[in-house]
Design goal:
By secondary structure, this protein is mainly alpha-helical. The chain has one domain (46-400): Orthogonal Bundle (Ribonucleotide Reductase, subunit A), CATH 1.10.620.20. The chain has helices at 5-22, 28-42, 60-63, 87-111, 121-148, 150-159, 182-203, 209-239, 244-260, 268-275, 284-289, 299-318, 359-369, 373-382, 395-400. α7 packs parallel to α9 (244-260). The longest helix has 31 residues, at 209-239. The chain is globular and about 60 Å long. It binds fe (ii) ion (FE2) (2 copies). Residues 134, 193, 196, 222, 225 line the site of one fe (ii) ion.
Length: 407
């Protein structure tokens, strides 16, 4: 019997998956060994992280002692899974930690090929550091799964090494999108990593103490990722090579993707997560202090709203760098180009209005607003020019070995 190459690959993959699944790691150290195999499989050279240490970090103090909101408010935060009062809550936590971990490894799969084409050594360092930190974040989530969630946790920790962004099997849409070039990378770190900041912030007040305590160090690292995106985009604007209307189209693509990441509207799982105290609102502690009432039915909309305002303000700051008379850059309305939520699949303009026009007019509208095949072609030419303001790495960056850049 002749087996086509495609089906052979599928069979091999299935066999490989079965092998992994039958050999679930029983300790975190065993999981770490499998992580090494994942690095090899996705083509990430461990030498790229230089002296960065993949390790587990907790900030127990910031995690707080007492449950801060929801039905268990005022009780002691849970430190072990046996203290979690219901299986449903345990399952909710397990899935939240799994989704978080999935995004961390996925982003490395999406980005690692970019190191080869870094516009400067500084950018190569930055991307390698971001990928090192994302791997540490994935470690942290897997440590929680392996330590607190028994065999179910081990299974999920192992699956985090088996789904793959290139194959489109990561859990959230944004983390399966290809990122062919550095303009995508800067938009991604600006808009998608910034969604990460919100997710981590909302978990930082969790009733499950090991999860809350994981967030402080992760948030610190995450801020470098957002900064890389924002600075990169500013340097692109200053260089003045990439046309602003094209830049806007890439903003539109990643902004709408990031809007989706906040989840469905009137989400019951977000509501339960709040009732159980496992995931709060953005800036929960401040809101509690101010006595700001919670609207449990609209938690995802609420956090998306904060996120939207923040990126709109960031882009407004970028507008200060535009040449005289240039049309300002903007952040598309939350209704535009959504795949998740009440506007999913609907036709809305970047201003958020229902689109008026027929199919052909809508296609033309999308052609104006979203990246086109021609943009990808044109970018190849721009990337050969000085398309981004130069930035040199510091001596510390070079000596760190991260990204293996040379003086
Ligand atoms: Fe991360
Ligand atoms: Fe990140």
């Amino acid at each position: 019997m002749q087996i086509s190459r495609a089906s052979k690959t599928i069979i091999e993959r299935r066999v490989a998956t079965r092998r992994y699944m039958s050999e679930l790691p029983t300790t975190f150290d065993e999981w770490v060994e499998n992580f090494g195999e994942w690095q090899t499989r996705v083509g990430f050279d461990p030498a790229w992280i230089g002296d960065f240490e993949l390790s587990i970090k907790f900030d127990w103090e910031r995690a707080g002692e007492q449950i801060e909101f929801g039905d268990y408010k005022g009780r002691k935060k849970w430190e072990r899974s046996l203290q979690i009062p219901h299986q449903n809550i345990r399952d909710g936590l397990l899935s939240m930690i799994t989704v978080q971990g999935d995004t961390e490894f996925a982003s490395v799969e999406q980005q690692k090929h970019l190191l080869e084409t870094a516009p400067t050594d500084y950018d190569r360092y930055a991307a390698a550091r971001i990928m090192a930190e994302e791997q540490r974040h994935g470690w942290q989530m897997c440590y929680l799964l392996m330590t607190y969630f028994g065999q179910q946790g081990a299974r999920e920790a192992q699956k985090l090494l088996e789904r793959n962004a290139q194959e489109g099997s990561r859990l959230l849409g944004a983390f399966n999108r290809p990122m062919p070039h550095w303009l995508d990378f800067f938009c991604y770190t600006m808009f998608v990593d910034r969604d990460g900041k919100y997710q981590l912030g909302m978990l930082s007040t969790s009733s499950f103490k090991p999860l809350a305590a994981s967030m402080g160090p992760m948030l610190k690292e995450e801020s470098f990722h957002l900064g890389t995106g924002a600075n990169g985009l500013r340097r692109i604007i200053k260089a003045g090579v990439i046309p602003l209307d094209m830049l806007q189209r890439y903003f539109n693509k990643w902004v709408s993707t990031a809007h989706d990441l906040f989840g469905t509207d009137t989400s019951t799982s977000a509501e339960w997560a709040y009732v159980w105290g496992i995931k709060g609102r953005w800036d929960e502690r401040k809101k509690l202090e101010e006595g700001l009432e919670v609207i449990k039915e609209n938690l995802n909309e609420e956090s998306r709203g904060h996120y939207h305002d923040e990126i709109a303000a960031e882009v407004e700051k970028m507008n200060g760098l535009l040449p005289e008379g240039a049309a300002p850059l903007y952040v598309a309305h939350e209704n535009f180009n959504r795949e998740i939520g009440s506007c999913a699949g609907g036709r809305y303009t970047v201003e958020g209005h229902a689109f008026e026009g027929d199919d052909a007019e809508w296609e033309e509208y999308l052609h104006q607003m979203m990246p086109r095949a021609q943009d990808e072609e044109d970018l190849k030419k721009y990337f050969e020019e000085e398309w981004i303001e130069f930035r040199a790495p510091t001596r510390m960056m070079i000596e760190s070995g991260i990204g293996q850049i040379k003086a």
